[in-house]
C-alpha cells in the first residue's frame, strides 16, 4: 500500500514538473518600448502578463523585455496614463506603445495597509503625493518635502539643519506625540530623517480609519506609506546633484536701537519714572554720551585703565578670575549681533544610482551625500546614505527580495536644540549693541561692565560649540519572500527593522566676558545604541468571478524595541584642547549615568523592552465595479499596559462609483465619480513609556546611602517612578465622508473629505503633590478631545497651446480642535509656560477650547489720564465695598488698561481670557508646473491663515524695564506712549516692570501669524541632442532654483513659521511661541540630472 501511494506521488510530481516545463519552454522573450503623449520615453511603466504574476518595468529609454507565451496579452500601465493591453500574437516584439493621458487618476495603483489597490476601488481617505513635485524642494528629508503637498497634512519646520519638523495629519490627536506612523517598504518606523528622498518611488498618506485602522494601536496619528525605488530595464547609471548658497534674512531683523538711541531710551525711561538719568556707561548729563570704552566702565580715551599694558586675561582659566583686567572699546555704531552669528552658507547634494532588471530580477544601488551648512555658525547637517534594493523571481510562484539602507549622520545640534532663551539666537536680541564681539586683544567681549545687562555674547556661545560633535549610524530595511500557494492565494513574510547607535560629546568652556559667568569647565559624553524588529506574515486571497471581486487578507505581526544609553560629565580640565579631553582627563567631580529615562515620548526607558503582538484582517469587495465595501480589524497586545493590555480596532468603509450607473452615462462632463464613507476606531500608545505600568526604585549615594554609627554606610533605595497599572489605549473614533471625481476627460480632478474624530482616554502626565515623593509621574488616561475638518485637493491639466502645458494642484486643509474633558485633580484645565511672567502661565489647555491656547489679560488701550484711573478706582470701591480697592494693580498714565471680562469692576486673576490660538483656521498649497518643449518651470506656494503667535521676543525688546542694559527695539523709543503720542503701539517706557505693562501675560504679545510663502521656484532645460545619445547619455537636464523666495505676512517677528525646540515633550500642548526663531533661509541653487 505504501509503495503504491509512493508511486502515485512520484507520478503526480513528474506530471507537475512536465506541465511547468512545458509552460517555461512555451514562453519567449518579448521586447517593446513605451512612450508618453509627448513622444518621450516613459521610465518605470509597469509591464505584466495578463492573468499571471510575471512583470517588469521600463527603463529610462522606455524599453522593456519580458518572458511571455506566444498567445499572451501584455498589460502596460503607468501613473497618470491610461492602461493598454497588447497581444503578443506570436511575435518577438510588440513595437512602440504610446500611452495617452489618463482620463481618470482613479486607476492609479495605491499602496495601502499591507496591500495595494486601484484608487477607484479605495473606500478610505488616501492622498497620493506627487513625488516629482515634492522632490524639487532642496530639503534633506521627506518630512519637509510633504509640506503643502497633500490636503490634511500639516508640516511646521525651521531653518535649522537636521531639525525634525512637526508633522501632523488632521490636527491633534493626543496631548503628546502627534507624529504619524511611517511604513517604509512594509516596515513601521517613526524615523525617516535618514532616508534619501531620491530613493523614494511613491508616498501615500492614509488619513481615516477606513485606510489606517489596520495599523491599530499606532494609527491614531495617521499613517504615511513610503515605497522605495526598484530597478527596471537595462543597466542605467544616473546622477542628480546641486550646489547652492543660503542667505539669512537681511536688515535690522529685530529693529534694534543703535547705541546712541539706547542711551536716549534710558534717559526717557528714567524721566518717565521721575528719576534723574544716570548710567555707568553714558554718564549722568542732560543727554547720554557714548563712552570710548565700556571696560573700564564709561572710560574715555587716555584713561590709565585703558592702557593695553595693564590688560590681563586668561581665557582658559580654571575657577579663579583674580587679577583679570579686560579692556573693551565701545562699538559706537552698534554691533549687529544677528549678522555676527548668521551668514551665507553653502548647501550641496550628490546622488548616484545604478538600476537595472527584468521580470526575473531587479536591483537598485544608490549613494547619496547631503551637506547643509546652517546659516547660524557651527550648525550643520552632513549625511551619507547607501541603499541596496533587489527582487528575485526564483520560480513562477516564488519571489524574494530585500530593501536595505545604511546612513551616517553628523548633526551636533540635533539633540540639544537651540530655540531656547539662553541660546545664541536668544541672546542676539538681548545683548547690548554697544558691546563689540572682541576686546582689544581679540578675546570675547561681553556684558561684564556695569549697566550692560546680563546677556551673553552670541558669537562666543556659538563659537564655543565648534568642537561639539554628534554622530549617528543606522541600518534600516527588511527582507521578504512571497509564494503563490494557489492561483489566487499568496503568502508573504517580511522581517525588518533597524539597528542604530550614536554618540555625542561637548565641552563647556569657562566664561570671563559676561556679568554672570560660568566659572567652571566640563566635558560631557554620551552614547546610545538600540534595535527594533518587525516580523509580518500575511496571507492574501483574490477572487474575480463575473461581477464580483473579492480580496481577503489575514496576518500577524510581532514587534520588539530596546535601547541602552550611558554617559558622563567631568569637571575641572587644565587643558581645553579637544584632542586631549575625555571623561578620564578632568580633575574634578565625575558624574555618570546609564539607561537614563529620557522622556515621555521615548520608545523605551530604563532599558526596558517594548513589545507589540498583533493580529489583523482585511476584506475588500467590489460588485459590478461600482459598489464597494471594505472592512478591517486589528487586535494589539502591548507591553506598555498590564491590566488593559489588549485593544481591538475595527473599521468599515463603503463606496459608490456613481459614474458607473446607467443614469450617469450621458453626463459627459463627469468622467469618473465616487462617493465614499468610513467609520472605525484607531489607537495610540506612543505617549506611555515602556515602564508606565510599573513602580521603579533605584539607588543614589546622595539620597539612599545612610551612615550608621558615624562610619558604616548602608545602601538603600528611593522611589524613581510611580506606576500606573490601569493605563490603557487612547482610542480614536473616526467618521469620514468624501468623494473622488474626475471631470472633462481628465482635465480636472477633485478630492474632498469631511471628517470628525472623537478621541478618548488621552494619556497625560499629571502633577502629583510634593507629599507623594520625588518619583517620575506616569501617564494617566485623563482627557478627551474632538477634531473635525475638511480636506480638499484640486488638480487641473490644461493644454494651453502646442507644446505648452500647465499642470496645477491646489490643496486646502481646515481643522477644528476642542478639548471635551480633562480630569486633572478636579480642574478642567492645565496651564503651561510662565516664561518671564512671574509665575503666570501663558498657555491654557481647557475644556471647551482648542489645545495650547494663549491665555492672559486683554489690552483695551492705555490709561490716558489720572482722572480716568480715579474714576475706575471709584467704580471698584463701590462694587466691592472696600474703600481701598483699586480697579487694576499698578495702573498709571501711559500703561496698559485691561478688559474687565467678568464685569467685576476690578481686574483680578479671573479677568484673564483666551487671547489667541496657534493652530491655523486653514492651510493651503499650490503647485504649478509649466512645460514648453524642452523647458520646464515649476513653483510651489504654501500658506496658513488664522493662526496666532506669541511673540515673546517683544518682552525683551519693547520694554526698557524688562531688561535694563540689554538691547531694545525702535518701538520702545519711537512708538511708545508719551503725552504727545497717546495712540502708540507700546506703553510708556519706565525704569521698572509692572503688572500693567509686561510682568503678566497680556494680548500685546499676541500677533497674527498668517503667511503666504513661495517655497520653491525652479526653471529647467532638458538637452535633446543626437550627440548625447551617441555618447551614451539618455537624459541631461540642468536647472536653476530659488527656495523661500518671498514671504507675505503681517507678523513682526523674523519668521512666522514657528516650530518647537527638539525634544520638547510639550510640543503639542505648548507651541506657537517665538523666543527667537531659526528662520528659513533663502536658497539659490544650480543642479544637473544625467542618465547614462
Automatic annotation (TrEMBL):
Assigned keywords, A-Z: Cell outer membrane, Membrane, Receptor, TonB box, Transmembrane, Transmembrane beta strand, Transport
TonB-dependent receptor plug domain mapped to chain residues: 118-223
Presence of the UniProt keyword Transport in the record: yes
Subcellular location per the Swiss-Prot or TrEMBL entry: Cell outer membrane
InterPro entries: Beta-barrel_TonB (IPR000531), Beta-barrel_TonB_sf (IPR036942), CarboxyPept-like_regulatory (IPR008969), Plug_dom (IPR012910), Plug_dom_sf (IPR037066), TonB-dep_OMP_SusC/RagA (IPR023996), TonB-dep_OMP_SusC/RagA_CS (IPR023997), TonB-dep_rcpt-like (IPR039426)
SUPFAM superfamilies: Carboxypeptidase regulatory domain-like, Porins
GO cellular component: cell outer membrane
Start and end residues of each TonB-dependent receptor-like beta-barrel domain: 496-1040
Membrane topology reported for the UniProt record: Multi-pass membrane protein
Keyword Transmembrane appears in the UniProt entry: yes
Full protein name: TonB-dependent receptor
Gene source species: Deminuibacter soli
High-level lineage: Bacteria, Pseudomonadati, Bacteroidota, Chitinophagia, Chitinophagales
Amino acid at each position: 500500500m505504501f509503495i503504491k501511494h509512493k508511486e502515485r506521488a512520484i507520478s503526480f510530481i513528474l506530471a507537475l514538473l512536465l506541465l511547468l516545463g512545458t509552460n517555461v519552454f512555451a514562453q519567449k522573450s518579448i521586447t517593446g518600448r513605451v512612450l508618453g503623449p509627448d513622444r518621450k520615453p516613459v521610465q518605470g511603466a509597469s509591464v505584466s502578463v495578463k492573468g499571471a504574476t510575471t512583470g517588469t518595468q521600463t527603463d529610462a529609454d522606455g524599453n522593456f523585455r519580458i518572458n511571455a507565451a506566444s498567445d499572451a496579452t501584455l498589460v502596460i500601465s503607468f501613473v497618470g496614463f491610461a492602461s493598454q493591453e497588447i497581444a503578443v500574437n506570436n511575435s518577438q516584439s510588440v513595437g512602440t506603445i504610446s500611452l495617452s493621458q489618463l482620463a481618470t487618476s482613479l486607476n492609479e495603483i495605491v499602496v495601502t495597509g499591507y496591500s495595494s489597490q486601484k484608487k477607484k476601488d479605495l473606500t478610505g481617505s488616501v492622498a497620493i503625493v506627487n513625488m516629482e513635485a515634492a522632490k524639487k524642494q532642496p530639503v534633506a528629508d521627506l518630512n519637509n518635502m510633504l509640506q503643502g503637498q497633500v490636503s490634511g497634512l500639516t508640516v511646521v519646520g525651521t531653518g535649522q539643519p537636521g531639525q525634525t519638523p512637526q508633522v501632523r495629519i488632521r490636527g491633534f490627536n493626543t496631548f503628546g506625540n502627534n507624529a504619524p506612523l511611517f511604513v517604509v517598504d512594509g516596515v513601521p518606523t517613526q524615523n525617516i530623517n535618514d532616508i534619501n528622498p531620491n530613493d523614494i518611488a511613491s508616498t501615500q498618506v492614509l488619513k481615516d480609519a477606513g485606510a489606517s485602522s489596520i495599523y491599530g494601536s499606532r494609527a491614531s496619528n495617521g499613517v504615511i506609506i513610503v515605497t522605495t525605488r526598484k530597478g527596471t530595464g537595462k543597466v542605467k547609471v544616473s546622477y542628480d546633484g546641486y550646489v547652492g548658497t543660503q542667505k539669512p534674512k537681511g536688515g535690522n531683523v529685530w529693529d534694534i536701537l543703535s547705541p546712541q538711541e539706547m542711551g536716549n531710551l534710558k534717559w526717557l525711561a528714567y524721566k518717565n519714572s521721575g528719576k534723574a538719568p544716570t548710567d555707568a556707561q553714558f554718564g549722568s548729563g542732560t543727554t547720554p554720551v557714548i563712552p570710548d570704552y565700556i571696560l573700564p566702565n564709561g572710560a574715555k580715551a587716555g584713561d590709565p585703565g585703558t592702557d593695553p599694558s595693564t590688560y590681563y586675561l586668561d581665557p582658559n582659566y580654571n575657577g579663579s578670575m583674580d587679577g583679570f583686567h579686560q579692556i573693551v572699546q565701545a562699538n559706537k555704531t552698534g554691533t549687529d549681533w544677528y549678522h555676527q552669528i548668521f551668514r551665507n552658507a553653502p548647501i550641496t547634494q550628490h546622488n548616484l544610482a545604478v538600476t537595472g532588471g527584468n521580470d526575473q530580477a531587479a536591483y537598485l544601488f544608490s549613494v547619496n551625500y547631503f551637506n547643509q551648512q546652517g546659516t547660524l555658525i557651527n550648525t550643520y547637517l552632513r549625511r551619507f546614505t547607501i541603499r541596496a534594493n533587489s527582487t528575485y523571481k526564483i520560480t513562477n510562484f516564488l519571489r524574494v527580495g530585500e530593501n536595505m539602507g545604511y546612513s551616517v549622520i553628523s548633526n551636533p545640534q540635533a539633540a540639544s536644540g537651540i530655540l531656547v532663551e539662553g541660546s545664541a539666537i536668544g541672546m542676539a536680541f538681548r545683548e547690548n549693541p554697544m558691546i563689540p564681539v572682541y576686546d582689544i586683544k581679540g578675546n570675547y567681549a561681553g556684558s561684564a561692565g556695569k549697566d550692560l545687562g546680563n546677556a551673553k555674547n552670541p558669537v562666543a556661545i556659538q563659537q564655543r560649540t565648534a568642537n561639539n560633535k554628534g554622530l549617528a549610524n543606522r541600518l534600516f530595511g527588511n527582507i521578504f519572500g512571497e509564494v503563490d500557494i494557489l492561483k489566487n492565494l499568496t503568502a508573504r513574510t517580511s522581517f525588518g527593522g533597524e539597528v542604530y547607535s550614536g554618540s555625542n560629546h561637548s565641552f563647556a568652556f569657562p566664561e570671563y566676558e559676561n556679568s554672570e559667568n560660568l566659572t567652571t569647565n566640563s566635558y560631557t559624553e554620551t552614547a546610545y545604541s538600540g534595535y527594533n524588529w518587525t516580523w509580518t506574515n500575511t496571507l492574501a486571497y483574490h477572487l474575480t468571478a463575473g461581477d464580483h471581486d473579492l480580496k481577503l487578507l489575514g496576518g500577524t505581526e510581532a514587534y520588539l524595541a530596546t535601547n541602552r544609553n550611558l554617559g558622563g560629565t567631568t569637571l575641572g580640565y587644565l587643558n581645553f584642547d579637544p584632542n586631549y579631553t575625555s571623561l578620564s582627563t578632568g580633575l574634578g567631580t565625575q558624574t555618570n549615568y546609564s539607561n537614563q529615562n529620557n522622556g515621555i515620548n521615548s520608545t523605551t526607558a530604563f532599558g526596558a523592552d517594548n513589545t507589540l503582538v498583533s493580529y489583523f484582517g482585511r476584506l475588500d469587495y467590489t460588485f459590478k465595479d461600482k459598489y464597494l465595501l471594505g472592512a478591517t480589524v486589528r487586535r494589539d497586545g502591548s507591553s506598555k499596559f498590564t491590566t488593559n493590555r489588549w485593544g481591538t480596532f475595527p473599521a468599515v468603509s463603503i463606496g459608490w462609483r456613481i459614474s458607473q450607473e446607467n443614469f450617469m452615462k450621458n453626463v459627459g462632463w463627469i468622467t469618473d465619480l465616487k462617493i465614499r464613507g468610513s467609520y472605525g476606531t484607531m489607537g495610540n500608545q506612543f505617549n506611555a513609556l515602556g515602564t508606565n505600568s510599573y513602580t521603579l526604585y533605584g539607588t543614589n549615594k546622595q539620597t539612599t546611602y545612610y551612615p550608621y554609627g558615624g562610619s558604616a554606610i548602608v545602601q538603600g533605595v528611593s522611589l524613581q517612578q510611580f506606576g500606573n497599572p490601569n493605563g490603557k489605549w487612547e482610542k480614536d473614533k473616526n467618521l469620514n465622508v468624501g468623494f473622488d471625481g474626475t471631470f472633462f476627460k481628465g482635465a480636472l480632478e477633485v478630492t474632498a473629505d469631511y471628517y470628525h474624530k472623537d478621541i478618548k482616554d488621552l494619556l497625560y502626565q499629571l502633577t502629583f503633590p510634593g507629599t507623594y515623593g520625588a518619583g517620575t509621574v506616569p501617564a494617566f488616561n485623563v482627557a478627551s478631545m474632538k477634531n473635525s475638518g475638511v480636506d480638499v485637493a484640486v488638480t487641473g491639466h490644461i493644454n494651453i497651446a502646442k507644446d505648452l502645458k500647465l499642470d496645477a494642484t491646489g490643496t486646502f486643509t481646515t481643522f477644528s480642535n476642542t478639548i471635551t474633558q480633562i480630569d486633572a485633580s478636579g480642574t478642567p484645565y492645565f496651564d503651561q509656560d510662565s516664561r518671564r511672567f512671574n509665575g503666570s502661565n501663558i498657555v491654557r489647555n481647557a475644556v471647551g477650547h482648542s489645545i495650547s491656547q494663549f491665555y492672559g489679560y486683554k489690552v483695551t488701550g492705555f490709561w490716558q489720564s489720572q482722572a480716568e484711573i480715579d474714576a475706575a478706582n471709584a467704580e471698584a470701591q463701590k462694587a466691592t465695598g472696600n474703600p481701598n480697592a483699586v480697579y487694576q494693580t499698578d495702573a498709571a498714565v501711559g500703561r496698559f488698561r485691561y478688559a474687565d471680562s467678568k464685569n467685576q469692576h476690578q481686574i483680578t486673576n479671573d479677568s484673564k481670557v483666551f487671547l489667541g490660538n496657534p493652530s491655523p483656521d486653514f492651510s493651503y498649497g499650490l503647485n504649478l508646473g509649466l512645460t514648453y518643449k524642452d523647458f520646464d518651470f515649476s513653483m510651489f506656494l504654501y500658506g496658513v491663515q488664522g493662526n496666532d503667535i506669541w511673540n515673546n521676543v517683544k518682552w525683551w525688546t519693547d520694554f526698557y524695564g524688562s531688561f535694563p542694559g540689554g538691547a531694545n527695539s525702535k518701538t520702545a523709543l519711537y512708538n511708545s506712549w508719551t503725552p504727545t503720542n497717546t495712540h502708540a503701539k507700546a506703553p510708556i517706557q519706565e525704569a521698572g516692570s509692572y503688572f500693567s505693562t509686561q510682568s503678566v501675560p497680556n494680548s500685546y504679545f499676541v500677533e497674527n501669524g498668517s503667511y503666504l510663502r513661495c517655497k520653491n521656484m525652479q526653471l529647467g532645460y532638458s538637452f535633446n541632442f543626437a550627440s548625447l545619445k551617441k555618447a551614451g547619455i539618455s537624459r541631461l537636464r540642468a536647472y536653476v532654483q530659488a527656495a523661500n523666495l518671498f514671504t507675505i505676512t503681517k507678523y513682526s517677528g523674523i519668521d512666522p513659521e514657528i516650530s518647537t525646540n527638539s525634544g520638547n515633550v510639550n510640543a503639542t500642548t505648548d507651541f506657537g511661541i517665538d523666543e527667537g526663531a531659526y528662520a528659513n533661509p533663502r536658497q539659490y541653487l544650480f543642479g544637473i540630472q544625467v542618465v547614462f
